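Subject: Sanity check before I submit

Could someone independently write out the structure tokens for this chain? I want to compare against mine line by line before I put it in a report. The sequence has 547 residues.
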Amino acid sequence: MVKTKLILASVIILFFSVSSRAQEIPGRISGNFQLDAQTYKADTLIGARAAPEKLLLNSYANIRYDQGGFSAGLRFEANLNTLQGIDPAFDGVGIPYYFIRYRTEDLDFTVGDFYEQFGSGILLRTWEDKFLGVDNAIRGFRIRYTPKPGIQITGLIGKQRHFWELGEGIVRGLDGNISLNELLPSLQTSATRLAFGGSFVSKYQADGDPLYILPENVGAWAYRFNLSRGGFQLESEYSTKINDPSADNNFIYKPGNAILVNASYATSGLGVNLSIKRVDNMSFRSDRNQNLNKLMLGYLPPNSKSYTYSLMTLYPYASQANGEIGIQTEISYRMKSGSLLGGKYGTQITLNASLVNDIDKSAINDSISIGAPGSLGYKSDFFKIGDDKFYRDINVEIARKLSKKWKANIIYQYLNYNQLVMEGKGGLLSANIAVLELTWKFKSRNTIRMEAQGLWTKEDRGNWAMLLAEYTISPHWFISVSDQYNYGHPEEVKRIHYLYGSVGYIKEATRIQLSYGKQREGILCVGGVCRNVPAMNGFSLSISSTF
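---
Independent answer below. Compare away.
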């Protein structure tokens, strides 16, 4: 396996080299690289650990060659050693990702590593996020065929990346999309757009369990429907899979299902979004014995809003594959410039509400408890909501340009967060969060941005306050300093200031940032997928560029 990787990688690198020097061979070489380094100093008050290596490093570079319908690429990674909070199994140096791809008008095939998503991703979404420590690329073969406009079929087979090796399970998938407006000439000019799709994904993993008889082939199906007209859009997907006992569901034999409906409407100054989701035992991995972010096949979009303000990310929501039912709605309205409430430059008001509960679960009979391993697990009424609250997020945001030089953004959020479900500790906590952001552009190239944030709760670590100031000298330099203060911690000795400063330089496609300070322990989430981030104290360096 290692010898094969080296041979293939060497062939691709040699091909790049020859192509770039031979003028008679046209083509384009592109890529990007990223380097993240961190020093670690022990700090017992915040729980930060020192690193034996003193300096930890994550880095990678992507190189790609394109010529007509032909593409080839690879990614080199060096993790020496992996940053704290990322699985140390990523430690090492090598080329874990490489591919060859060829495309014609109706045919597209890839050999090697690739990322793929069917529909909303409930059955299949392979992707990578370095900050989350996620990379579940498939290595194998993928073909996409378009027999006529409006019809597209995708088939694939392979194994998923598992750190520097491949996972045990074999993944097989088939997906089809039909766009009626492209397919039928009579509908090509219609204002109503209709599309249908369906997916089948299966995994094979040998049964070596000494206790249970486990299904070696697990199949899952999904059906989707998209409708749009004018400013209205409706997307829906329903998926189901056969029994799939795994470490995620305590090895129960209950089949799984999930439904996702997204609706939106937009017109001048007004936008409305509604999302409804129900998930029942829908964890889907290519290896039944893995956990956390390892070897995931399916992706469950969260019914929650993503935030960039620090204190609003302290308690993020993670999708619950074993059961959740939720709704999210967002209404955004822009008051016209010159109106009484809109002011001279207009005002944007956004209301958001996310409500997520457990699904209803009841015992199959009096002799088997809910979720008992080796059983059918539980019964669940599809239309009934469980009693346990997982998440509540109700917030209002007002964004307004005060003058030619000043802008303001104000947010208030009320939050319920089930810490026991999300983190395995505590219980249901309540919090109020407020944010004030001011931006002052006092010269054409100079901007100062200021943030004041507060979080108030009687649970967990108590109240927080944060101040931030960022100075930007466009287009190259920026400097920022922030202080998060956990002034309401139940233990007085842990009422700590987390001071953090950064300076950065940007030139064209290159960005360099050097930072120093303390970072609190917490959870980092992107799109409902999370990882624990340990407390840190030290320097960090980040360099990225594209070419």
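---
OP: Matches mine. For the report I'm noting this point. The mean pLDDT is 93.
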